[in-house]
Amino acid sequence: MHYNSGYSQGWSGGYPPPPHQGSWGPPPPHHHHQQYPPSPQYYPPPGPPSGPPPGHQYSPPPGPPPGQYSPPPGPPPGHQYPPPSGPPPSRHHHHTSSGSYPAYPSPAPSPYGHPHTPTPPPQSSSPGHIRSYSNHSQSWGPLPPRPPQEAQQFGNGAPSNYRFQYSNCTGRRKALLIGINYIGQPNALRGCINDVTNMSTFLNQKYGYRREDMVILTDDQKNPMSLPNKANILRAMQWLVKDAQPNDSLFIHFSGHGGRTPDLDGDEEDGYDDVIYPLDYRTAGHIVDDDMHAIMVRPLQPGVRLTAIFDSCHSGTALDLPYVYSTQGILKEPNLAKEAAQDLFSAFQSYGKGDLSSAAQTAIGFFKKAANGDTARQRTMQTKTSPADVVMFSGSKDTQTSADTFQDGEARGALSWAFIKTLQQRPNQSYLQLLNSIRNELEGKYTQKPQLSCSHPLDTNLLFVM
């Protein structure tokens, strides 16, 4: 398979880019909607996509999730899903978005309205005990402490004058939920829209997010402003963080195709930026992690919480957050020698199979990683830290693909399903316990390893709140 020279995308999933269909350019205009308030923090993406999405992602359920998520009935299908190749046909919707902006229909979730300050979701008043899942243990421990309210020092190589602040999540709540099945395209996904439907119900019932304070973008909707194209996604990201105040709780969930593209600014240790693929990626391009960080992380004040769930391939650092934590709660220091050895092994495998282009690409990545990894880490720590409280769970490491699965009678993304299930079963977990709970749900069924990353040094023994 020859790769089109117009693509510079790094592919680890083995899926060739879709056939070239004309020059790259902005997405077709959707009547110049002005419903999204302008944001001074908007950083437009650098340009057209460099290639197709890696192969697989998730589909969302058509209705609200059941009250409890039972464990998966069996191993997921072993399919890998290549990237979509063209725009989907018009379909009837079962998500609507409405709000104070005229172009949005009046039903359910209201994008771009002014969220109220809800009563915080109920917290367990009894001290109780929770089960610790660290290192696969089943020991009981005390209720994790709530986050401190005083300003915290960064350390770990961050600028010496930097402070950050945890959020107590008692202020306004806003959510942006994006699910793309790439309907009608050859590499369509099955569970992404289901993921969004389940997540919206979960947030509403368990964490007090009002439907009118959610923006839902899915590709089964009729309203052009509710389609997950690049322009709508970027505007919705701006809306999510606009006017955020300390102790507000913001939430973004993306379920769809993700991928990697060569890093152009030297801030990635592995030489690649993570990207997500909007519905119109073939004409409008992908969205790079650097741009998502600039739009949603950089503008936030101390004490604002942004919780991010990225259920996509190669999503380990989709928001470019510099602090990554292991299942033992220890800040990860990249082992470049080990990673480089793995890359060389992959290169030899590709060479042995006659895949010379993949072998060359892997080898180039190895040399760039060995030469630039330490510098990239320092650059990231200095430029991507934030005084806000940004926490992300991603579906896989930067170098991994994520699995589409079939749970409770419907197609779903593995991370989205596990995140909801573990918090439904036991809401009062620490960050470390939640990460291990999610991994335990997926272990033995999927090869992917969900990641926890943060905009600041995180005490992973604190109570997870949002």
Automatic annotation (TrEMBL):
Free-text function comment from the UniProt entry: Involved in cell death (apoptosis).
Polar residues biased stretches: 1-10, 150-159
Bias (Pro residues) ranges: 15-28, 37-89, 104-124
GO cellular component: cytoplasm
GO BP of this protein: apoptotic process; proteolysis
Repeat listed as a keyword: no
Organism: Aspergillus saccharolyticus JOP 1030-1
Keyword Signal: no
Region Disordered, annotated ranges: 1-159
UniProt entry keywords in alphabetical sequence: Apoptosis, Hydrolase, Protease, Thiol protease, Zymogen
Protein name listed in UniProt: Metacaspase-1B
InterPro entries linked: Caspase-like_dom_sf, Metacaspase, Pept_C14_caspase
Domain Peptidase C14 caspase: 172-458
An annotated Gene Ontology molecular function: cysteine-type endopeptidase activity
Matching SUPFAM superfamilies: Caspase-like (SSF52129)
Family: Belongs to the peptidase C14B family.
